[in-house]
Amino acid sequence: MNSLQDKVTLITGAVSGIGEASARCMKEAGARLALADIQDGSELAAELDAIFIEVDVADHEAVEAMVARTVEHYGRLDVFVNNAGIEIHSPLVATTPEDHCRLIDVNLNGVYYGLQSAIRAMINNEGPDRGAIVNTASVAGLIGAPGLSSYNAAKGGVVLLTKNAALEVAAFGIRVNAVCPGIIRTPMAEGFEAMSGGMISLEEVGKTAHPMGRLGEAAEVAKLICFLASDDASFITGAAVPIDGGMTAGPSAGDFANLDMNG
């Protein structure tokens, strides 16, 4: 386990999915947790001996208050997992301005506001290593996907925002990286399956989309986040790391099922 012993760690979108899995992973690694979400997380916070902060990350003042509350309670901020996000499936021409703006506000602007506030807090830490930030992007920030234009635009923005932030704060001893998950078994993904009325099978989508032939699990993404947040990743910054079962590597492994491996 990558040690995060006594690292003050703030996680947005912490109540379910990748955020919850990251909270559990980081707690096991010794972190002191602040959990933030738009939905109630008081029960999870009590379980993990954490503080809970209700926040809409699209509100920059609320994000500033979230970071200030964390620093007020623990005295500092060492790790920030910029994870909150939403997903809307709709063809570009059928997406309403309201849906597009809400998705950009949460998935891109929310990450931007989180970076601003977390960096300001971390700069006050003693150096040379002042903090680590991990943004949750997506394979949708690396490759296109029909029906996800607004989501892709936001996640692509997160990937480049990660790189820009990493360049700006490297001299201050703050590292900034992103994870780019493929299709992960989370309540958000399961909700999309339910909305399809049985027309879409999450398991089948995972088998088809990933050369490894299965869905990813939130705990697998959490382990990568924990690593990037830890001192074990001390020379990694500005990276957007796919965790996608090979999705962005090329065609599905199924396309090569009959390949002669004997030469």
Separation, N- and C-terminal Cα atoms: 40 Å
Count of DSSP H/I helices: 8
Gyration radius, rounded:
18 Å
Dominant shape: globular
Element layout with pairings:
Layout: E1 8-12, H1 17-28, E2 32-37, H2 42-47, E3 51-54, H3 60-74, E4 79-82, H4 97-122, E5 131-136, H5 149-169, E6 174-181, E7 184-185, H6 187-195, H7 202-209, E8 216-217, H8 218-229, E9 240-243
Parallel strand pairs: 1-2, 1-4, 2-3, 4-5, 5-6, 6-9, 7-8
Helix pairs in contact: 1-8, 3-4, 4-5
Features of the shown structure:
single chain, 263 residues, seven-stranded parallel sheet, two-stranded parallel ribbon, 41% helix
Short account of what is shown:
This protein is α/β, with parallel strands linked by helices and 263 residues long. It has eight helices and nine strands.
Tell me what you see in this structure.
With 263 residues, this protein is α/β, with parallel strands linked by helices. The protein is 41% helix and 16% strand. It has eight helices and nine strands. A seven-stranded parallel beta sheet has the order 3-2-1-4-5-6-9, with helices on both faces. Helix 1 (17-28) crosses helix 8 (218-229). The termini are far apart. The mean pLDDT is 93.
